[in-house]
Write the structure tokens for this entry.
Amino acid sequence: MTDAERTTTDRGSAEGGRAQRRGLVRRLREIVGDRHVLTDPADVVVYEQDGSILQVLPEVVVLPASTSEVAAVVGAAREANVPIVPRGSGTGLAGGAVPAEGGVVVSLARMTRIREVDLRGRIAVAEAGVINLDVTRAVAGQGYFYAPDPSSQAACSIGGNVANNSGGPHTLAYGVTTNHVLGLEVVLGDGTVTWLGGRVPDPPGYDLTGVFVGSEGTLGIVTAAALRLMRAREAVRTLLAIFDRMDDATDVVVQITAAGIVPAALEMMDRTTIEAVETGAPAGYPRDAEAVLLVEVEGVREYAERAAELARQICVRGGAREVRVARDEAERQRLWKGRKGAFGALGALAPHYYVQDGVVPRSRLPQVMREIAEIGRRYGLRIANVFHAGDGNLHPNILFDMRAPGQLERVIAAGGDILRACVAAGGSITGEHGIGLEKKAYMDLLFSPADLDAMARVRRVFDPDGRFNPAKMFPTPITCAEMRRAPAAIPAGLWI
Amino acid sequence: MGRDGLVRRLREIVGDRYVLADPADVVVYEADALPLTGALPDVVVLPGSAEEVAAVVRAAADGGVPVIPRGAGTGLAGGAVPEGGGVLVVLTRLDRILSIDPRARLADVEAGVVNADLNAAARPYGLTFAPDPGSQAASTVGGNIATNAGGPHCLAYGVTTHHVLAAQVVLADGSVVWVGGAASDAPGYDLRGVLVGSEGTLGIVTRALVRLVRLPEGARTLLAIFDGVEPASRAVSDIIASGVVPAALEMLDALTLRIVEDFVHAGYPADAGAVLLVEVEGVADVLDRLADRIRALCARHGARQIRTAATEEERALLWKGRKEAFGALGRVRRGVYLADVTVPRHRLPEMMRRVAEIAARTGVPIANFFHAGDGNLHPNLLYDPRDPAAAAAVARAGEEIVRAGLELGGTITGEHGVGLDKREQMRWMFTDADLEAMRRLRRAWDPHGRLNPGKVVPQ
């Protein structure tokens, strides 16, 4: 029996369950105050979804304001024997914050304090609900920044970034969230509050901080994080290269990194994306180009200038039809505009898109890009590619219309084929969006049953009741509870 | 199954030659590089494959005896000392480099591959394995993983955990699993990160997929000579603050300089208060400009002389003193206790003052040479091992240094691991709840505490 199933069967009869639920809501109101417990369907409906298209209506949403309130909420949920689903800003793309098995959704959105900024030690301690961009805003004036920059950074929270080990365009040079988290304050299933890690990199003992980063709320609730701040770069150089052939553009990506340049960002957009951008939010890209490559290098002035010039030469030699170099910050913003607006612009081509998140070794990019195009042809679907080419993190966006009968099934099948192509090329099923509900069925593409059991063992010691964010991440069979709650739009047996 | 039964079974698994049970044979394995600590294993076994390791672990489990993994035995914290006896599993026969993929910049290696051998194999492709612990000519990749080893070039490249993508691990029940994956940041729990640095208490790493980095196009190495540790420390802060990330930024203090120069003749001025060894790497045509910047910053903090290596020979000579410093210390005092604390970089000057005070108060001579760029100190406490009073004073001084580091926001070990040596000090750094979270994790995989018992987490 899986953890999830055990929890479900333990949850008792429906009648007793309702009485227990009333008791739980009362208890939650005592802890956080009436205003911060939502049970009315009109209120909780806002929390039925995250950035994915999966929906499950929560029973109770609670918004604690402090670590001790979170610990008390966890205690109350334990006594009532119901699941706990932590939630940040709900911008996640894999259904990680969807309450698949019901229970209490714990929103950390009120924990927005930056508790400490230590510029000499280059550390900020931020509560889980602090918005990513607010960390940088708090220190930018003094010449520092927080490096992980997911596209949702104006909305997503530090706690959500930690849960998903989020990346962003600048991951190539700076690494993902786990490389910028020194320590975590967590509430465990038994209500214990503890700090994992600390304020120095690579502390002795087991790297539990690393285990909690990316655990998607399945081991406990992160309430605060000690974050590494970085010194703002002395110089930034940005250039945009336009290619007539996608293969040339992917080759250039390989050549730039092979030349020993580590760009801060190396972003690619394909022809379909260019069409969307030019239709929805024009950025001055030629509509007949096959690929646009955005290259940004940062560092001390001497390096940035030289590296930008080298990158420009590689682009020209590699067949770029045109290379635009930003001469000032305004021009830099213009070059980035198309990339930043790309996802929004996809709406100009289709009512819905499903963003995939695969990873392949950089050297296999040209081949996998061809395979993705072939998958699109096979299923009769348009796929727009906007992605972090430098680290081989692909974001194929499958365009579709949810109302067209049979399209969603084809989209899901095509998404699965893309992930299988990535794994076959030596890659992975997610670069930065997490597993959540969406990808749990694909975990066994990467891990053997014994590998997964080693993870399940970790989960069992921290969360023996399987209470934290059940039914996520592990490739468990679909349970009765999931079937009952699954919205009709989702074909049985599949999560997207 | 008694000891004889166990030995018989081990011989069946790996062959007679690779099981050592005679006290005269096993005595070689009683200690690692931590001085003054040793214990005899009941039996030493040298398996030749992951399957053999798994079978050995199962045999030990059936016999109810502990299993202690060991690489090259160069560890400085007693991690490979079989404190309570048991089966010592030596991984040095697992020494095959299975593949090097220059396009993907990956190497697939067995745990017993020597760090320097991997580098030699990667060099023809213009690649290298970045972690470069002082022991790299002898230490194994498996040992580097167990202790999350660092080295002088950590400042730019990070420690071992940043270079291990995946590992094959034999767990306490003899199951063989892979953690991590070929692409970085594999989904699911980061078990790879937990295994790295777990010192053989969670599983035995038998094989690893490691990242190789491109050899730099060029390097510039500078040696700046200062009148004291404080101005040198301030120069370190300014170099980092300027945005230059040197590949290495090493400091040697006055006592070290005197001892080293006597032995190595690297041309270090014997009367200097401190020297900084700074190396920048990367795209060739910006190196001179970066070196100019560093020279200017050192000069601003009163460097009395700054030398730049003009040739590879000169570079090797500048490094020679640093690389052979530990050996040189052994010439003046037979006993050297090498401490390993890290403090936030901006606290370096204060920490160095405290170390000097501790040396003065306890009468223990302390020579410092260390990774200044990442605040990782290596105070070397010199003593005569035949003098029991001196050994006690060293232990006291070592404790005081660690406590001083913690007061300044540091940690009890930068890169050598916890092992036996720092086990009790874990309590100084972590709360009971923190340690209990670590114990939980250990129970998840090793419920009977059979793998390297007593190490890392205090009971």
Remarks:
- Residues 1-12, 478-496 of chain A have pLDDT under 50 and may be disordered.
